[in-house]
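Is adenosine-5'-diphosphate placement plausible here? Inputs below.
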Amino acid sequence: MKIYTDLLSSIEQYVKEKTQNEVTGHDWFHADRVRHNSLYIAKKEFNNKDIDLFLLQAIALMHDLGDWKVNTTKKTESEILGDACKILKIPESYSLQIVEIITHLSYSANIEKKNELPLEGQIVQDADRLDALGAIGIARAFAFGGRRNRQIYNPNIKPQTLKSTEDYKNTENPSINHFCEKLFLLKDLMNTKTGKRLAIKREKFMKKYLDEFYKEWSGED
Ligand code: ADP
Ligand code: NI
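Reply from A.M.:
I modeled the complex. Tokens:
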């Protein structure tokens, strides 16, 4: 329906504008890749059956707008998303779902207990997590770490088990530790078979990268 195509164009414009200064891997291109991967999973695994493609794309594009990692305002994530929905004139039946799903989607919101999500949320969660893996995931981890003054690697600081949202948010560990502390846990947390298959493939690549990293670190020929 045309109204939803127009709404999606407005959401695209809005996300591009709001993320223009973002350099930690939560920019427009991340949002667009998450949308692309979400559409891929929806078609491949469900043949789009029972999936609201507007809702799927809206949450994919908007999912990091109010995330704690990029939020520099005093507003809560719900307020940022609610404001965006109002400005974009998204019908209330959708805006309520968009805010509810996105605020329960992130890794940090699911550490202590796994939130129940509708199919659209489960797919976007997998797509978002896939973008934290593989070649792009590696680049994003170092970009994020650098921006937060984290070291690349320090062999004296061992990876931790981060069991609470607070621990996860407060750790200042080197970026390489993030691979074990979070990224390698993701494949077992995937909601869809397609997400899991791609996560396994991307994790393999990261492990190869780490092998090479440690080899060079130890001065091996
Ligand atoms: P999620 O909701 O799963 O956190 P996001 O797209 O919001 O997904 O952010 C995930 C990205 O944030 C990771 O791919 C990684 O690049 C970055 N990140 C978060 N915490 C850390 C950290 N402690 N060290 C390095 N990168 C981090
Ligand atoms: Ni994201």
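Short version: Residues 14 and 218 are 47 Å apart (CA to CA).
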